[in-house]
From TrEMBL:
Entry's Gene Ontology molecular function annotations: transmembrane transporter activity
Organism encoding this protein: Sphingomonas pseudosanguinis
Source superkingdom: Bacteria
Protein location: Membrane
Transmembrane domains' residue ranges: 12-29, 44-66, 78-99, 105-128, 140-162, 174-196, 241-262, 274-293, 305-324, 330-350, 362-384, 396-415
InterPro entries (UniProt xref): MFS, MFS_dom, MFS_trans_sf
Protein name, UniProt field: MFS family permease
Amino acid sequence: MADIERATIRRIGWRLMPLLGLLYLVAYIDRQNISYAKLQMVDALGLSEAAFGLGASLFFIGYFLFEVPSNILLHRMGAHIWFTRIIASWGVVTLLLAFTPSAPVFYLLRFLLGVAEAGFFPGVLYVLTLWFPARYRARAVGLFMLASAVANAVGGAIGGWLLDQDGALGLAGWQWVFLATGLPAVLLAPVAFFLLPRAPESARWLTSEQKRWLADELAAPAVAPTTGHGDIRATLRDGRVLLLCLVYIGFPLGAYGLSYWLPTIVRGFGVSNTANGLLNIIPWTLVAIALWGVPRHAARYRNPIGHAAGPALLGAVLLISSVLVDHVALRFACLSLAAAAIFSGQPVFWTLPPRFLTGARAAAGFAAINSVGNLGGFIAQAIVPTLRDWVGSDTAPMLFLAACLTATGLGVILVERRLPRPD
């Protein structure tokens, strides 16, 4: 049985994770390209930092409003159909952003980008519960989220270079950023439709023994599977779901607050756009290492709380340290390590909802937690620029992000005590 288990997980991993990771890489680049485009787009549209930050943050409002409906449709229609719709629509909106003529159109398109992408990340989390037994999920989520680190590194490398192509073929550098990052999503839509596997029982690349082993492993969830609109509404009223929604806010807030501002902070070091992008590869390389290692360490020692709350608290300490040190290199080192800490706790956090949610309830629960939590991204991109404008330095934004991460770390510890214990 041990041989069957290893072979099954390995085969599922190779069939599922590279494609999902590639799709998330493109999604994250399309979500974060705004941090580089803003270096020119602010002046092009005649906006202040705060006004531009508000427009960028409208992505998360659209995301919040349509996340749960999107995941319910995913449960009914299947990942291959619904992910294809999501990918194609966010690619089209990204391409349209390249031709933004005014601030109102920019606000509308950022909102529509959130609507288009809503449901993808929690949809993947839900799909992983259909393919991986509980003890493998943190590692699977960690591998999936590696794509976000790669996306930031790749986005940084090409984002700065694209800005320096300002004037090529009559287009501004910020326009090239959107064109070059939107086209891959459109091209990947049919790939997702044809290559995403439908369900374990119909997977031709699994043997009968492997299918039987997987079915047995997934047949005993923490709660009995339930479906139906009443169950979904009950899930959204579940106090544990609501608490996880609130607790999760700090992770996206810290992640988006840091990733949104890193290119601006690095530009303050006096480097070129291309050098800015290359320097930003460093923190995301550390994020990738942490996303690979922390979930594995958590699974080995069966300590989800220490590996979810601990990184959040460490990230808060590092953000505070970044404003206390004077040397540019030390400040950048603190921010880079903070990014690794903030991202590495999230895969372990996502092992908590499946302790009490399955089936349609899991789809709705993942979507609710992610949609409310991602309002942290709205706060980061709307409030952080405003704080910076008020204070005139990066100190207040970093302290604000640190306070939110501290609340998240402590909140994870408190909420976990209310959940069923893992097997």
